[in-house]
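Fill in residues.
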């Protein structure tokens, strides 16, 4: 075949998105346990490390839990205890915006909180921010375009409430309510859209486990129903890896090891390998293309320190069956980010790599390096993005069917100012378009 297939990679400033319709596979590994068992916590990633904030070690009552802050370094497989938040609480939600971890809501067995605290990992300090308009527990949160959305929860009944926090102005805005009241649900932002799924609601005095999924468009301030999860559940976690939302664990009368993968582009669900440890009230995050499931509860009341890591492998494109699209924000990436891993379904020849900055950088010699590799010296090609554009020129790198390729993005942290488009003076470009060309052999 002589047709050319293309993979387009827009590079933008905070998270990584890949779009594909192929089956989900991958492997789970057990990692170092948290310093103490933990549940009712929130997890997020900052500068290549995973942070767990708040929560309880399972103390039966009342307000005697420590709500710790833990940091995990994947390079050393070790946890470190950090400064505890000012207002100790569990069943809270969190999200990372421009390298700051915001922890909102929660309870302490006696009170529902509207508290909003910001954790700066660089200084290991917590700062009180503007509280949510609505106190609540069991809420979920997601970040879209630099805005933190606090969704649902209970006060004390299930809520449809959605409130949006802008860290730049330290202000909250009430937005359109969800279609379904829900608490202990999960949320994730992908490509400018917020997705909320699962949870519990009360119908006719009976608690009902939800499979429903809703998508929020901030531009139109509207919610739209999407394809439901195959498995109805609450107390689950969601993580975005390569543009796919992974719904992890949960509870539907029993603790679940279930993992299901949602493709927002095709509005479809597929099964992924189950966690080794079934659990509910688990929290999860992503670092360098790896999903980490942290803590949770097994059985009726056993709190876990268990940490398990899932590395997805995407089988299929690039090849005649399709192509992939990646989006990544450069500002808070670790020094090397594995953007995607995939297995070729046919032999290909990579013919060119190009990149162009939509907003040129300022004050940087090297902004980022793209690497496509099969793990061998002969199968590795890099493109350094310097200035406004770069082009590898014609190349011919052959890969056999069945080869495993990775796309990595390496960044020079000194080149980046504060995150968020448009680019800050002396900072990174807010948007770079990159094109990888290849053809089937």
């Amino acid at each position: 075949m002589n047709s050319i297939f293309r993979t387009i990679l827009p590079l933008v400033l905070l998270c990584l998105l890949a779009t594909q319709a192929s089956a989900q596979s991958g492997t789970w590994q057990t990692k170092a346990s948290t310093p103490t068992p933990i549940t009712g916590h929130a997890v997020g990633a900052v500068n290549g490390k995973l942070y767990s904030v708040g929560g309880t070690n399972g103390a039966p009552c009342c307000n005697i839990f420590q709500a710790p802050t833990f940091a995990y370094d994947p390079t050393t497989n070790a946890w470190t205890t950090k400064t505890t938040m000012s207002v100790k609480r569990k069943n809270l939600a969190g999200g990372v915006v421009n390298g700051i971890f915001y922890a909102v809501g929660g309870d302490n067995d006696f009170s529902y909180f509207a508290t909003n605290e910001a954790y700066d990992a660089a200084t290991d300090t917590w700062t009180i921010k503007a509280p949510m308009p609505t106190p609540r527990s069991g809420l979920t949160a997601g970040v879209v375009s630099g805005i933190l959305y606090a969704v649902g929860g209970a006060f004390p009944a299930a809520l449809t409430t959605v409130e949006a926090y802008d860290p730049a102005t330290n202000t909250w805005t009430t937005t359109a309510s969800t279609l379904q009241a829900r608490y202990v649900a999960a949320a994730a932002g992908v490509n400018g859209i917020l997705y909320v799924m699962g949870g519990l609601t009360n119908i006719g005095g009976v608690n009902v486990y939800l499979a429903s999924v809703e998508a929020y468009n901030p531009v139109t301030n509207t919610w739209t129903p999407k394809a439901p999860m195959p498995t109805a559940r609450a107390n689950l976690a969601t993580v975005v890896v390569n543009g796919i939302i992974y719904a992890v664990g949960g509870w539907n009368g029993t603790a679940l090891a279930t993992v299901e993968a949602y493709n927002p582009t095709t509005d479809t669900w597929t099964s992924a390998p189950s966690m080794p440890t079934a659990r509910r009230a688990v929290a999860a995050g992503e670092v360098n293309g790896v999903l980490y499931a942290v803590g949770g509860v097994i059985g009726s009341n056993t709190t876990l320190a268990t940490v398990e890591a899932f590395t997805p492998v995407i089988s299929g494109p690039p090849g005649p069956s399709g192509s992939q699209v990646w989006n990544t924000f450069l500002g808070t990436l670790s020094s090397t980010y594995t953007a995607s891993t995939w297995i070729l379904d046919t032999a290909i020849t990579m013919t060119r790599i190009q990149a162009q900055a939509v907003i040129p950088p300022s004050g940087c010699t090297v902004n980022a390096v793209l690497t496509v590799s099969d793990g061998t010296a002969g199968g590795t090609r890099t493109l350094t993005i310097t200035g406004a554009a770069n082009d590898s020129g014609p190349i011919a790198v052959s890969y056999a069917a069945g080869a495993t390729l990775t796309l990595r993005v390496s960044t020079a942290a000194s080149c980046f100012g504060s995150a968020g488009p448009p680019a800050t003076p002396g900072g990174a470009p807010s948007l770079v378009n990159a094109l990888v060309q290849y053809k089937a052999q």
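The chain has no helices and 39 strands.
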